[in-house]
Specification:
The complex is a heterodimer of chains A (about 90) and B (about 575). Chain A is about 15% helix and about 35% strand. Chain A is mostly beta strands. Chain A starts with a strand and ends in a 5-residue tail after the last strand. In chain B, strand 7 and strand 8 form a beta hairpin. Chain B is of the alpha/beta class. The chains are: A mainly beta (about 90), B alpha/beta (about 575).
Chain lengths: ~90, ~575
């Protein structure tokens, strides 16, 4: 396993209630999906990002969000450099 | 504050909550609160899934099964599997209700892929669809759905449940639910373990709020771990993929360690959910004795599988897809001899809120159904949890609706409500409190390492001490996220309190039970002690913390009154079950 880094932009509510993209750099150990990245950011870098998740296995649909302009499941989308992730835009 | 009022309030949006809603809506007004969308929340959609009933019932439904089987014969097996500490009233309700619950699921469109002894094989998704159709048949207005909301605590007045307080995730608004009766259907506390195979919302909320309300919990030390769960890479962590595939478990030296000395034990391990207990204990034995992998697991290899059999398997899983995951690249590596690191992960909770055969808890008006309840499976669940979910869901919904007709809407204890709301406000206003995630990480490690698959007095004592400290510290959590709407951190803070309580009760009960039984394996007490420990441990909140009371199991079906080495007890159980099958055939 090689440790490398990926930088992504995640949209979140700021204190004034505006949805703004912020940039985060995530260490990558083994294949990660977007949900893994959101978890890392939420737990380690910025607890104020928010998203929904449930089954983690692509069955329940809870983590449907906009990733690079497309509606996708965060748990079934592989993480890639420069991704733009908007958890606020789901169904 | 938004207010809701109904005869019955159901908390939990998985299969048990949904089935309870169907039953309750026949005669009562119903509100269902769920963290996720109703019928897609919780463990149900991910279940395997076999759904079980006795052979005679399945034969009557037209599925190949043993027509001379009976609910009574099945119940006798469940007692052996549960190491004779099952609550027999619950077992009788389970085997008695199973056939009818399977029949109605079929009527609601559940698809059947194949049949096994006492089971039809379907999917969790199909069960959920069938249950949703069952609810539709009650009419669209049958229940008020409150999705995307979390219940924080139950409201109790004069010893009776009168409703609950929650929060809406999107708006951050506090929700007040008034109800005549309440059904808890919130599942297990999977997320309290570093490695688990549960959905994210399974955080012991029902057990936590029931405990705080003064309800009795039972058998909290009994936790099933599923073996062969992928530990890495992160995208696959927690998947049951290798649990369902044929493989060989190796330690870090490449030695296969599953050696079946007794063919009957081997049969249990290879043909039933006994595999969870047997493989998990053996895997953790390797890890504890220093023969595990870098992530704390063991290795799963498919190298033994001849090419053509690998091809057959590939046909069964087109594109190497399982659930929503695509394993094709990993399977290319597996075919060429790669061994993936896997390990036991928390998967099912035998223990939980204590109920009787009407799903009543020890608090008047409060019911519990499905995995959040305890006592049915004793020390080891082998029979299907999906059946438990629909049988208990139906009973709890029906009973809660019936009872609601005899009860007035009780008043709310305004002082208690204010205290609850104030405690939530404190999460936002407290300066320099405890951060959620450091404590959660610590909890998950303690739970998995010291209150996990194999336990001992030293580890459990240390765990209890640490858990008491964490329990103290979660009283003064503070949030970084100051907005109330869409506040995931807030939900996680509430969940953390519930998870700490569940693990603490598990650790206390596991320490108290100085023997091994079923999924509870104590390295320092490797004997099944039927002289002393054919007992439940009842946990209840006392003035000075956790109160634990052992109570004897009431039954006329008794195990051999002796102590038996743990491994021998498993062999004995295997032989009893094999003998019965032989005789009944």
């Amino acid at each position: 396993m090689t440790t490398k880094e990926v930088t992504v932009r995640i949209r979140k509510l700021d204190e004034k209630g505006e949805l703004i993209y912020h940039e985060y750099t995530i260490p990558v150990e083994g294949e990660m999906n977007v949900l893994n990245a959101l978890e890392y950011v939420h737990e380690v870098l910025d607890p104020t990002i928010s998203y929904r998740s449930s089954c983690r296995r692509g069955v329940c649909g809870a983590c449907l969000m906009t990733i690079d302009g497309k509606k996708r499941l965060a748990c079934e989308t592989l993480l890639a450099e420069g991704m733009e992730i908007d958890p606020s835009k789901g169904e | 504050m938004q207010e809701h009022e109904s005869d019955v309030l159901i908390i939990g949006g998985g299969g048990a909550g949904l089935r309870a809603a169907i039953a309750a809506a026949k005669t009562a007004s119903v509100t269902v609160v769920s963290k996720g969308p109703l019928g897609r929340s919780g463990a149900t959609v991910l279940s395997g899934a076999d759904i079980m009933a006795d052979g005679a019932s399945l034969a009557r439904l037209g599925y190949p099964n043993k027509p001379d089987d009976s609910p009574e014969a099945w119940a006798r097996d469940i007692l052996v599997e549960g190491f004779y500490i099952n609550d027999e009233n619950l077992v009788n309700a389970y085997v008695g209700g199973a056939g009818e619950r399977v029949r109605e699921l079929l009527e609601w469109g559940m698809t059947v892929r194949s049949t096994e002894e006492r089971a039809v094989i379907t999917t969790g998704v199909s069960i959920c669809s069938a249950l949703r159709r069952g609810l539709q048949e009650q009419g669209d207005a049958a229940v008020t759905r409150v999705d995307g909301a979390m219940i924080i605590d139950l409201l109790i007045n004069h010893g009776r449940v009168v409703g609950a307080v929650g929060v809406d995730f999107d708006s951050g608004e506090i929700l007040l639910f008034r109800a005549r009766t309440v059904v808890l259907a919130t599942g297990g506390w999977h997320q309290a373990y570093r490695f688990n195979a549960g959905a994210d919302e399974l955080t012991g909320d029902g057990q936590g709020m029931a405990y705080r309300a003064g309800a009795e919990l039972v058998d909290m030390e009994m936790v099933t771990f599923a073996p062969n769960i992928l530990l890495a890479p992160p995208r696959y962590r927690g998947s049951l993929w290798f649990y369902i595939l044929p493989g060989v478990l190796l330690n870090k030296n490449g030695d296969a360690f599953m050696n079946w000395e007794n063919p009957k034990v081997a049969k249990l391990a290879l043909t039933s959910e006994w595999n969870k207990l047997l493989f998990s204990k053996a895997s953790m034995r390797e890890v504890r004795e220093g023969r595990g992998g870098p992530l704390g697991g063991v290795f799963f290899s498919m190298k033994h599988l001849p090419e053509n059999l690998f091809d057959t398997l590939a046909e069964a899983y087109p594109g190497w897809r399982f659930q929503g995951d695509d394993f094709s690249e990993l399977m290319v590596k597996m075919r060429t001899g790669y061994a993936a690191e896997v390990g036991p992960a928390a998967e099912y909770f035998e223990g939980g809120i204590r109920i009787n055969e009407r799903c009543e808890t020890s608090i008047p008006g409060l019911y519990a159904a499905g995995e959040c309840s305890g006592g049915l499976f004793g020390a080891n669940r082998v029979a299907a949890a999906t059946t438990e979910m629909v049988v208990e869901g139906e009973i709890a919904g029906r009973e809660a609706a019936r009872a609601s007709k005899e009860l007035d809407l009780f008043s709310i204890d305004e002082a208690a409500l204010s205290r609850l709301i104030e405690a939530q406000t404190q999460l936002f206003e407290r300066k320099g409190g405890e951060p959620v995630f450091d404590l959660r990480r610590r909890l998950r490690n303690i739970a998995y390492d010291k209150v996990g698959v194999i336990r001992d007095g030293r580890g459990l004592t240390a765990a209890v001490k640490e858990l008491e400290e964490i329990e103290e510290r979660v009283q003064s959590l503070s949030l970084t996220t100051k907005r109330r709407d869409h506040n995931r951190e807030w939900m996680e803070a509430v969940e953390l309190v519930n998870m700490v309580q569940c693990v603490h009760l598990t650790a206390r009960a596991a320490l108290e039970r100085t023997e091994s039984r079923g999924v509870h394996m104590r390295d320092d007490y490797p004997i099944v002690d039927n002289l002393i420990w054919r007992r439940h441990l009842i946990a209840k909140r006392g003035r000075d913390g956790v109160g634990l009371t052992p109570i004897s199991v009431v039954s006329d079906k008794t195990p051999p009154l002796k102590t038996t080495p743990y491994e021998e007890a498993i062999v004995e159980a295997a032989e009893v079950l094999a003998h019965r099958r032989g005789v009944e055939r």
